[in-house]
Amino acid sequence: MTGAEVLDIASEGIWTLILVASPVMLVGLVVGVIVALFQALTQIQEQTLVFVPKILSIFIALLVALPFMGELMNSFTSRIAGLIISGF
After folding, report:
1. d(CA 38, CA 88)
2. Model confidence pLDDT, tens digit, residues 37-72
3. Any residues with CB less than 8 A from the CB of 28 and at least 6 apart, and which?
4. C-alpha to C-alpha distance for 59 and 46, rounded to whole angstroms
5. pTM, rounded to two decimals
6. How distant is the alpha carbon of residue 38 from its chain centre?
7. Which of the two residues, 15 and 48, has the higher pLDDT score?
8. 51-85 vs 3-42: helix axis angle to the nearest 10?
9. CB-based contacts of 26-32 (< 8 A; 24+ apart in sequence)
10. Taking Cα atoms as reference points, which of 12, 6, 8 lies closest to residue 73?
């Protein structure tokens, strides 16, 4: 296996990681900004107010995005297993 092939596999792995993590991270970011804006507008500075909406929204995002995330991980793992079986 050449260095270029290793870099291609590593690059594909990083992109897979980004694509798998991005739906949940984006939902957490959006909900965090909305709650922070709500806190700034109402001047409610309760620290625990952020956690409940974030946890619920991330849980719902995981339920919705889990098939997409599983498909990406399955295709990447199948490709890596195929490379291992073929002897690189």
Report:
1. 54
2. 998 898 888 878 888 999 999 999 999 999 999 999
3. 54, 57, 58, 61
4. 22
5. 0.79
6. 25
7. 15
8. 170
9. 27/57, 27/58, 27/60, 27/61, 28/54, 28/57, 28/58, 28/61, 31/57, 31/58
10. 12
**Block residue for tokens 């297993």:** 81
- Helix H, strand E, coil C: the string for the chain is CCHHHHHHHHHHHHHHHHHHHHHHHHHHHHHHHHHHHHHHHHCCCCHHHCHHHHHHHHHHHHHHHHHHHHHHHHHHHHHHHHHHHCCC
Q: What tokens does 59 get? A: 């849980």
Six-digit token string for 68: 């997409």
Structure tokens given for 36: 């922070």
